[in-house]
Amino acid sequence: MSIVITGATGRLGRHVISSLLRLDVQLPDLVAAGRDEEKLGALRELGLATVRADYTEPATLDEAFAGADTVLLISSSEVGIRVPQHRNAVDAAVRAGVSRLVYTSALGADRGKLLLADEHLATEEAIAASGLPFTILRNGWYTENFEPALRHAETTGVVLASAGDGRVASATREDYAEAIASVLAQDGHAGQTYELSGDVAWSFDELAAALTEVLDREVTYRRLTPEQHLAELERTGVDESTARFLVALDANIEDGALDLVTGDLSRLLGRRTTGLVDALRMMR
Length: 284
Fold this sequence. Notes:
By secondary structure, the chain is α/β, with parallel strands linked by helices. The chain has helices at residues 11-22, 37-45, 58-65, 82-96, 117-130, 147-156, 173-185, 204-215, 226-235, 240-254, 264-269, 276-283; strands at residues 3-5, 30-34, 49-52, 70-73, 100-106, 134-139, 158-161, 167-168, 193-196, 202-203, 220-223.
């Protein structure tokens, strides 16, 4: 069994590799693929086979996937150009004749509520059309994405957001990685699409309450309008494009894009997902 992990030098990829090793997948069965030569070098020092793979360079993907049984396609971080990048990877997997392609998509990609959904859904469609056996893992939001909120609350006692009463069914990056590793290491997942999210969808008032417990100081949620939120982000030095993305994300949250709770993640893990308070404590 040969498993190629794309995006292996990223945070999710490294967690997946660690989880696979804990499942007693042997080092010779793993190939870490990525763009960052320095980070690949660090993985080689751990005994992993590595290969350079760039979604924009099909020849590197052909080399990376040659002889692979399973390929984990971790979605690109380059929003706006991900569909052609992912299609390059799917085409390379077809040329290599891999036995299974596993893709990290986005929670509720077919519901269209999340601003990132279209690119993920287009990738899912390309995978389905490829003829390859596949598994789709629609990952929800990482609790770690709210570390900036924790840092801000540490100094101000306030959570600033324009998400209204929206809820987020988040889980830790390690939760998702363990579930991905379980799918990679076991049979029986071909043709499945899993909606992965935390066991609890929390509100921003509940985030403030959790931060109050973790930080041992009173934290409150200040509800902003989108305009106020954008102005506040730019005032604190966030560049305009990132600020607009974050405000749009909060609008998605208010619309219910990240509140889906299915239990798929905890079933794959064989345990409950990491709770909000525990996840925040790990960030301190």
